[in-house]
């Protein structure tokens, strides 16, 4: 090869077997510039969020509030930590890792915001000794620190969204792989017509299929990461400390007040979702960054209650924070270990380095389908057990309640909403069995399962809503059914991650999953289904005397979180189906139709809880939505048969 190589590009040589060899890369390359594009805006949003969280650390969150210990310095350090780590990677020339840290930290923000809203609803039941030590049963009003904390979390979420969107739109070296475009450890690609080879961040020419090798390496550790995430989720649901203070409650999440419960469950679900998506990314930089960001987020959540339990009088440590911090440390070790790194390199005959395996093989689909199917069966079985297990235990003693007084329960209070878990669990378990069969049939059914799993949190939120409402009366406590419901919701979220990984493997092996433009009839059906979904999940499906069902507007409760999840799942399935090949698009729509179909069962299964129960507008809209989605699935399948798409 003659001629001088372009500045910032690797010099390439040809060996006798035509292997591509690389000498070096430069930070000033075109790919390096593209990798940093947009990162200052992301870091600026994170910096403003950090400043607001520092303000929240030094200002009272409620009027007249005093922390239980000198937590200001700890809170400031924890607020600065994720930004400092992101800046460190950015300054070290690793912008993809820096963005991953922002994304990982932002993944836990929605749950934190939801839990923080308990300060507005009833601050007297908030267990946050690092911010507020209650000294009475009164609920003080929110102060400057609370609003600064809320704004800081909101800006962190904005920073995370910007990090994903920038990586998704800029491509090349800047792609957040697994969240955006394809790439290899931050490797970019040349402009059209360029003769220079694509170069990986390690200075090695990226051979065809290198992204697949990265995906293969990540998936080998997929189950380990999910086990770590499960450990963190269990710890997040446990009591943060023990308390002998009559005004400072120390309850597990399932026995906490409404917003604390909703936020805690969302946090427990967010950890496996974020970790699973991170480890399924094709870029090592993305995996490292997101896992580090999640680990930092877990540390900022659990260090303050652990310190409070160890240092504050009348408080004591509990296992929950230790489990979460152990999981956070494990995430850090995984992120910094050799697992999932670039493939090992050996010396070539001419003294340069080349990849050992030029044709990496992706893991078999059948193995991933079996894992996904087994997880779905476990999630469905847990939901069915929850449907048959007591959710609320009552006592004849008026003092029995969520404060944990030692009174023996004497009566099981029936919860009609728990019955909705039976059909939801049966659907997920059945689809899990079909996916576990593997082969072409498992591939065909897997897209339906990737949407249908949302049915468990959809109805599980309603079951938890009933349990919380009963315990707030002060004469009941949560039964074992609440535990099984939370377990089913957690396993369902893991199923969603496993489906996403299996889908990414299918696309790697089969090529792109996109099809040509959809027919006008199919687009019309999809549009109608999306509009009907807003009504199906937005208004109550049952009406009765002295009964007001949960919705997304006028009566937002814990059940509404499940309704919102169902609406998002249906809308996302519609968007993906319009861009997918007909067979997979049809399966997606069948899975989406199962969600409004669950709403149709609310009246026959739970109607006895209210006098004069009758179908509400949500039931008729759910019927129409499910019917239109099934019609769209048929139209999509027919286009496959006719060869339209």
From TrEMBL:
Record's keyword terms, sorted: Membrane, Transmembrane, Transmembrane helix
Region annotated Disordered, chain positions: 1-34
Transmembrane spans: 42-62, 68-89, 96-115, 141-164, 222-241, 261-282, 289-308, 320-339, 371-390, 420-444, 451-470, 482-505, 517-538, 558-578, 585-606, 618-638
Top-rank lineage group of the source organism: Bacteria
Protein name according to UniProt: Uncharacterized protein
Native organism: Tamaricihabitans halophyticus
